[in-house]
Task: structure prediction
Amino acid sequence: MYVHPLVRLIAVVGAVLALAACGSSPHLNDAPADKNVSLVYGYIDMEEAPSKLQRVTMKKLKPKSDTPYYHFWVVDGMFFRSNVPPGTYKFTEFGGFSGWKNVDYTYNFPSQGRGALDPVIRRPGAYYVGTYKYEKIKKEGFFGQDKYDLAPVKSPSEKELLQKMLPYAKDPHWKAMIEKRLSKLR
Result:
């Protein structure tokens, strides 16, 4: 039976993508080689945004690093990352894809100021950087750029995020860290 090479290529690419997706589900199952690392997490409500939240990036500012960028797991607006060493950080961007518009959106975090989105990690622990809502700001003119603000909101709370994250903690170290933080929030 003859199969067109393009059809064969599409089948192979589809299989590779399916296998890659299986190995890329969110998790906290990497045992830390160094116990001096932390868990960083937060939430962004993207209801008013033109895309969903699919990626969040944080940059290590101090001390200097050859690999300064940290990419986060994202699940329904919640973002989290384990194995973050001590240092000074700044969240740089977040974004996602809008399927119906066929556009990939990248949003920059504010570059000025200190705040929860600029964590300083001094010792191991769970670092909550806040819960925010993407709020669209009216653009200027027909061709003006979309503007937005990240407004702090109370829901979901830190406790709710930790409870939602707990099933992803396959490694005992991360599970214990989340449970310890939860016990302080009760």
